[in-house]
Amino acid sequence: MQTLAQLKAGQLQGITRLQLVENLTEFPREIFDLADTLEILDLSNNQLSSLPEDLHRLTHLKILFASNNRFETLPEVLGQCPKLEMIGFKANQIRTVPAASLPAQTRWLILTDNQITTLPERMGQLQRLQKLALAGNRLTALPASMAHCRNLELIRLSANSLEKLPSWLLRLPKLTWLAFAGNPFSHTLVDPHADVASVPNVTLADIELGKKLGEGASGIIYQGRWLNPAMVAATGSEHIAVKLFKGEVTSDGYPADELDCCLTTGEHPNLIKVLAHISQKDQLGLVMALIPAGFANLGLPPSLDTCTRDTFKPGTQFSLEQVATIAHQLADTLAHMHAKQVSHGDVYAHNMMVNKQMNLLFGDFGAASNLGNLSTLEQLAMEAIEVRALGCLIEDLLAYVDESVNAEHYAQLSAIKAACMQSDVALRPRFIEVKQAIASLLISTSA
């Protein structure tokens, strides 16, 4: 992060990335002195409500973040920026998105947590659009023109006012990560956990919270300890992990929907085990088994460059058998979830943990959606979308495999991947078929 004083003193010449958090109410004109090099501008967490009409003078600007400000309209000047492709205006008070505000080259548009009721038909002209975050708005429909957004891979529609899931959306050839919980057409949380008798409902009084283990968009995870002896006896362990939801809408949707989907899914050997839930009026949470020692994240989140695809630590390597083992477990897990009428919405390596034996633990239901109110055809389409996500994961992992070690089996797994990712959604295999195909491959590799 840089300072306004540094900028005004001319000390930032030549930089490509600028971040200012200075309670700004006006755009500092000195930013234009960086026009020859500036590519990323982050003005989030200020008090801005407008941008200068000559913003397009920043001819190299590719990425602009202006979240947590006071914008009521997405600035039209954005559309004049010649290289701008990533736009983030999360948590403003945006009601209006003018057609002129959307650059033709937009790849990544973040408008989460605003007050948007409609989007312009121009959305359909964004041929490069890959990632679109719209959770926490007031949308009642999407522009029909978006059927032309054939490169769209990730879309977050949760916590809106959508009356139905557009049929064209489920046919997009590259759509891979879709979240829509918290809309009128989706699962209605009347008494969300009435049918989850197998998972006890506890309160914070039953738990002693310890150190923080991690934090995501929807909540904070703590190490914990049961104070209730009955829960120690019921779960077989005094030590637990506790996820406390933050309570507000996140980039993926409402915490209550995440809790619902997690509990509806139930148990599976490759899902992080849920021991209890907290459904207090003022606090929602999950009590989970602690991750055993030896497990680590399979991947890292996407970068600004990869946009929708995971990244991996330098030096990462996998054997073909390891990739097949992971994919087989994931196919089985996702088959279980869809049998329970739940989609995950965030099938990514960074949401998975593995040990040296490639035993898989999968979690984070923040983008999950309950499919119970969808038709059979819509549910099958949702499964096909997540089958593509499995294909993307296999493709990502295969990039770290030495193809020459076993060219024949590499080609077989690549063929499975290609079937999962084919552009005609209706022709993709179901998870049970993918699982069987990978099982046959694993038998061959071990023979």
UniProtKB/TrEMBL annotation:
Pfam name, any one: PK_Tyr_Ser-Thr
Keyword entries, A-Z: ATP-binding, Kinase, Leucine-rich repeat, Nucleotide-binding, Repeat, Serine/threonine-protein kinase, Transferase
Family annotation (SUPFAM superfamilies): L domain-like, Protein kinase-like (PK-like)
Any one cellular-component term (Gene Ontology): cytoplasm
Superkingdom field: Bacteria
EC number from the UniProt entry: 2.7.11.1
Residues the entry annotates as binding ATP: K243
Domain Protein kinase as annotated: residue spans: 207-447
Enzyme class: transferase
GO terms of molecular function: ATP binding; protein serine/threonine kinase activity
Annotated Gene3D superfamilies: Phosphorylase Kinase, domain 1, Ribonuclease Inhibitor, Transferase(Phosphotransferase) domain 1
PROSITE patterns: LRR, PROTEIN_KINASE_ATP, PROTEIN_KINASE_DOM
Protein's name in the database: Serine/threonine protein kinase
Species assigned in the record: Shewanella oneidensis (strain ATCC 700550 / JCM 31522 / CIP 106686 / LMG 19005 / NCIMB 14063 / MR-1)
